[in-house]
Amino acid sequence: MGKIAFLFPGQGSQTVGMGKTMADSHEESRAIFEKADQTLHISLTKLIFEGPQEELTLTTNAQPALMTTSIAILEHFKRFNITPDYCAGHSLGEYTALVAAGAFSFEEGVYAVRKRGEFMEEAVPAGEGTMAAVLGMDRAALTEVTEAITAEGNPVQLANLNCPGQIVMSGSRKGVELASVKAKEAGAKRVLPLEVSGPFHSSLMQPAAEKLGSVLDQISIKDAKVPVIANVSADTMTSAADIKQKLIEQLYSPVLWEDSVNRMIELGVDTFIEIGPGKVLSGLVKKINRSVTTFSVFDEESLLATVEALKEETR
């Protein structure tokens, strides 16, 4: 077996009830949910466990909720002495990866992502920005489309480069609508509008990035104990100064997920363990490279199955 990477999901993976069985059964997981409530001075745990889904899905709630659930699952997983060689997370998940890598405490992380969610919501008035998934088109061709539309005064850009043939674009509502039409004309198989509250990972997030910088100044960012693959560069980051700069840039830059997975494979990773709700990242990894092994750890059953499978591999 080669190296192991821990992956942490981003916004969109949230579901009511996530992490509840883990918190009910394990003290170390329950303690994380309690810390989130105490740090944020809200009843986040009640919202995660009981809903409603619409409220949980709001960016300001979804971001701390996902981090809390992922770290609560990780805390129990740690007991089995499976350690990563690298960590990575998709967008919001990058903050969870940095907590896992020891770059800042859970309390500081959950505070930062709560504020990040607020700033992202405030950056662009509701309805003025959006995102759309483009299927079956390569990045060079789609970049040509978005750059042409942006040059006409309707900003739109590539936001998430998830896997071959799946790219999300983000920008002003008009920019995304015009680019959607042009992308289909240029050969895209499908263009799917996304139900999001803003144009995340686009230049329109610059105001949020400036505010985020002041929040990151308030927390104690340390050098990461485990290298984290940065969304914006698809390469390792470990120094505190580099981490802070890349987190600010991440708000208005594309998430290079396909490149990040390929970089980890280049570095010798052949086992990817997604820790947190859902199986989105495991699915993307398999679309990027079918030869690697993936696991999704989202509840007690999946955790124990992963531990057992890893034991088999190392026998």
- Count structural domains: 2
The residue fraction in helices comes out at 40-55%
- Rg, rounded, reads 19 Å
CATH class call of the largest domain: Alpha Beta
Q: Regarding quaternary structure, how should these chains be classified? A: single chain
Per DSSP E runs of 2 or more residues, the count of β-strands stands at: 10
**CATH fold-level assignment of the largest domain:** Malonyl-Coenzyme A Acyl Carrier Protein, domain 2
Mean pLDDT: 96
Profile the largest sheet: 4 strands, parallel
Helix count from the secondary structure assignment: 14
Structure at a glance:
51% of the residues lie in helices and 17% in strands. The protein has 315 residues and is α/β, with parallel strands linked by helices.
Overview features:
51% helix; Alpha-Beta Plaits; 2 domains; alpha/beta; 10 strands; four-stranded parallel beta sheet; 315 residues
Question: How would you portray this structure in words?
Answer:
51% of the residues lie in helices and 17% in strands. The protein contains 14 helices and 10 strands. The strands form 3 sheets. Strands 2-1-9-10 form a 4-stranded parallel beta sheet. A 4-stranded antiparallel beta sheet has the order 4-5-3-6. The N and C termini lie close together (10 Å). 50% of the residues are buried.
Write the layout of secondary structure elements.
Layout (H helix, E strand, L loop, with lengths): L2 E6 L11 H6 L1 H14 L3 H7 L2 H5 L1 H19 L8 E4 L2 H9 L5 H18 L5 E7 L3 H13 L4 E8 L2 E7 H13 L4 E4 L12 H13 L9 E2 L6 E2 L2 H11 L6 H10 L2 E7 L4 H9 L4 E5 L2 H15 L1
Parallel strand pairs: 1-2, 1-9, 9-10
Antiparallel strand pairs: 3-5, 3-6, 4-5, 7-8
Helix pairs in contact: 2-5, 2-7, 5-6, 5-7, 7-10, 8-9, 10-11
